[in-house]
Amino acid sequence: MIRRMLLLPLLAIAVVGVARAQEAASSEADQVLKADEARNEVLQKGDADGVARYLTDDVAYANEKGEILSKTQVLDNLRSRKQKFLSFKHDDVHVTVHGDTGIVTGRSTSVVEYQGQVSRHPRRFMNVWVKQGDGQWLLAALAETAIAEQ
To answer: What's the predicted TM-score (pTM) here?
Structure first.
């Protein structure tokens, strides 16, 4: 009987701890999604300086052509209009957070012009965000791949 009386408060503390951890993870996921959406907004506009605010200095951007682009290359492509968005749409978006790393996955049906070629086919993307010491989330890696026709 005494054991049960001692066990109940410990169980209650454990349940509260799990609930708080889930709430914190949800809040972090919301922050990652908000950063991802804000970057998408300036990206759609072709605002290279706006995009730069959301990228780590060593970001790796793997585009659907298989190229790995640096931050400088991504920003230069936007500034020179080598890359521009003719339409922009993401769906099936999911966010997971593991400590100071957030992963956003989804499907893009955006129409993108890159180096004079227009891409209209759907793509899957994965954006990897890292939380900085000041609490800001920055994009460290992005990968896109075409969705195979079925």
So the answer is: 0.80
